[in-house]
Design brief:
The protein is an alpha+beta fold. It has helices at residues 7-16, 26-36, 51-65, 98-111, 124-129, 152-158; strands at residues 117-119, 143-146, 163-167, 173-177, 195-199. The chain folds into two domains: 1-70; 95-201, Muramoyl-pentapeptide Carboxypeptidase, domain 2 (2-Layer Sandwich), CATH 3.30.1380. Bound molecules: zinc ion. Zinc ion (ZN) binds at residues 82, 84, 88, 91, 123, 126.
């Protein structure tokens, strides 16, 4: 049986890959880590730091040291960290759902180019601060704002995401979400019939 990392070692690794809350909220940080991990079989986000989570964290940390992505083949945890700058102590920092990250990987393949993440997780206070919708998918770890690469028609054809927000002026999709996989889906959107809306700015 593989050894489990000590809390101290694991904390250092979590901080290195973006969980700046690990020193004060170790369990919250590694649960966020478990939830999103896509570099092997899914981890059970059970809040228990055992052999599987320990081995997975060692893999992510080793990749980070080599300048590789830490969460999935092409995405890193830190890209999805709440942009509140760490000002809110209750913020979980990074809590993306694995299913959404898998869809982003599939999207990346379809579009044939890297996808820049503009915004991922948003805690309640940061969401209010930036004027996000009250039930914003960003609060559930199921949404990302991305660089607009594809048109709404393309995105619909891909049938990957359950919510698509596009910029009126360019027609490009700048928000994608997996509300069908998360804790709240008030509009009933799904990949075959996504909820869509436009941003006028
Ligand atoms: Zn936050």
């Amino acid at each position: 049986m593989a050894a489990v990392l000590s809390t101290r070692e694991a904390t250092g690794m979590l901080v290195a890959i973006g969980f700046d809350n690990a020193p004060r909220s170790f369990a919250t940080a590694f649960t966020g880590f478990q939830q999103g991990w896509n570099l092997g079989p899914a981890l059970d986000p059970d809040g228990r730091f055992g052999t599987h989570t320990s081995a997975a964290l060692a893999i992510s940390f080793a990749r980070q040291r080599k300048g590789l992505s830490t969460m999935s083949p092409n995405f890193s945890y830190v890209e999805f960290r709440c942009n509140d700058g760490g000002r809110f102590p209750e913020c979980r920092r990074i809590w993306m759902l694995r299913d959404h990250i898998r869809r982003l990987e599939a999207y990346r393949v379809k579009i044939g180019a890297p996808v820049r993440i503009v915004s991922g997780c948003r805690c309640k206070r940061h969401n209010a601060e930036v004027g996000g919708a009250k039930s914003s998918q960003h609060m559930f770890g199921t949404a990302s704002d991305i660089q607009g690469l594809a048109s709404l028609d393309q995105k619909k054809r891909f049938a990957l995401f359950a919510g698509l927000g596009f910029q009126q002026s360019t027609g490009r999709v700048v928000h994608v979400d997996s509300r069908d996989k998360g804790a709240s889906n008030l509009t009933g959107g799904k990949p075959t019939a996504p909820t869509t809306w436009r941003y006028s700015t």
